[in-house]
Amino acid sequence: QVQLVESGGGLVQSGDSLRLSCAASGRTISNYNMGWFRQAPGKAREFVAAISRSETSTNYADPVKERFTISRDNAKNTVYLQMNSLKPEDTAVYYCAASVRYYVYRLYSEYDYWGQGTQVTVSS
Prior knowledge:
Helix content: under 10%
Distance between the termini: 40 Å
Structural class: mainly beta
Shape: globular
Strand content: over 45%
Largest sheet: 7 strands, mixed
Oligomer: single chain
């Protein structure tokens, strides 16, 4: 199975940018569709973005479209989430996830492996 470790979170101001990384070990991520989810205090975990194995397909939640970009480097076994124009409502723990499913999904139940999360806090 694959192990996932997120990094790159932190405290930033509204309008700033951050790049999250998700480093995989154990298996190559080329076997998986990859996704990012987030969970704010008192709220359910929500889909942020996903990318297919071959990078030909990406999918974004409406609140982050045009601001966030998901990418992957299969050679480095790493997935990224570039977050621009951050807003206070983006504050959450961000999780990286891997899915063995054929299609790219938005539902967290369709993902099989998860990282421990990295905190992103955006101050106004």
